[in-house]
Specification:
This protein is of the alpha/beta class. It has helices at 4-9, 11-26, 37-49, 82-93, 108-116, 128-140, 168-171, 191-209; strands at residues 29-33, 53-57, 98-102, 120-123, 145-151, 154-160, 218-223, 228-233.
C-alpha cells in the first residue's frame, strides 16, 4: 500500500502506471552488481522510481578518476568505500527504500545468496570475468538479467530471460584467460554509462510492470559519437554450456 506521501511523490508516473503499477514497483527487489559508471546511475534511477528493495554490491573505493562519470560520489568521498557512500546517498534520496549494501567482492557464494532473493538482476560491471559468473548464477536460479557494457562512446544493452532468450554466454562466449580482461583501464566519457544505465533501468521497469517492448532476445548497440542506435536479434546457442539444458 502506498502512503499519501508516496502517492504525491510519484504523481507524475502514477498518471502513466496507475496506483497498481507504482505498487508493483514498491513490491519489487533489484540486485545491482557494480556501483561504478553504470551502477551509480542505475541505483539512483531505481531509487527515485520507487523500487521497494535495492541490493548493491561493490568492493571498490572511490578514486578521483571515477568522478567523470560515477555520479553518486563527490570529491570528499575519494578513498571511501563505494558501497557505503552509495548507500548513504540513496538513503537520503529515498527514505522508504529498503537498502542492502555489500562492500564485498561478488563471488559465487555471495552471488547465489543475493540473486536467489531478488526479482531482477542488473549487470553494471566493468569486466567479463565477473559478468560471466553473474550470468551463470542468473541462469541457474532463473532470474532475469539486464546487461549493459560500455567503452569510449560505445555501449550495448540486452535483457536475458533464462530458458527463453539467449544468455550472455550465447551472445559472447568468454574464456577466462582472455587477455583483454587483464586489469585494463578503459577509456570512457561520462555520458556513455549515463545513457546505458538509464536504458537498463527502463528495461527493469518494463519487466516489472509487464508493459512495452524490451530487449529480450535482442541487443541494442549504441555509438554515441556517430549517433547510431542499432538493434540486433540474438539467438540461443543450442550447445551453450551455461544454458543449453534450461527450458
Ligand atoms: Zn547460453
Amino acid at each position: 500500500m502506498l502512503s499519501p506521501q508516496e502517492i504525491e511523490r510519484y504523481d507524475r508516473q502514477i498518471r502513466l502506471l496507475g496506483i497498481e503499477g507504482q505498487e508493483k514497483l514498491k513490491k519489487s527487489s533489484v540486485l545491482v552488481v557494480g556501483i561504478g559508471g553504470l551502477g551509480t546511475v542505475v541505483t539512483t534511477y531505481l531509487a527515485y522510481a520507487g523500487i521497494g528493495r535495492l541490493v548493491l554490491v561493490d568492493d571498490g573505493f572511490v578514486e578521483l578518476s571515477n568522478l567523470n562519470r560515477q555520479i553518486l560520489y563527490a570529491e570528499g568521498d575519494v578513498g571511501k568505500s563505494k558501497a557505503s557512500v552509495a548507500c548513504k546517498k540513496l538513503r537520503e534520496a529515498n527514505s522508504k527504500l529498503v537498502l542492502e549494501c555489500y562492500a564485498q567482492r561478488f563471488d559465487r557464494d555471495l552471488g547465489e545468496r543475493l540473486v536467489k532473493d531478488v526479482d531482477i538482476v542488473v549487470d553494471a560491471l566493468d569486466n567479463w570475468e565477473t559478468r560471466m559468473l553473474l550470468n551463470e548464477i542468473c541462469v541457474k536460479l532463473r532470474k532475469p538479467l539486464v546487461h549493459a557494457g560500455v567503452e569510449g562512446w560505445y555501449g550495448q544493452v540486452a535483457t536475458i530471460i533464462p530458458g527463453k532468450t539467449p544468455c550472455l554466454y550465447c551472445i559472447r562466449p568468454y574464456k577466462s584467460n582472455e587477455k583483454r580482461d587483464i586489469k585494463k583501464t578503459i577509456s570512457v566519457v561520462g555520458v556513455t554509462p549515463g545513457l546505458l544505465g538509464i536504458l537498463e533501468v527502463a528495461e527493469v521497469l518494463k519487466l516489472i510492470l509487464g508493459i512495452g517492448e524490451t530487449l529480450q532476445g535482442k541487443m541494442l548497440f549504441i555509438d554515441l559519437l556517430n549517433l547510431e542506435f542499432k538493434v540486433f536479434e540474438v539467438k540461443r546457442n543450442p550447445e551453450c554450456p551455461i544454458c543449453k539444458h534450461v527450458q
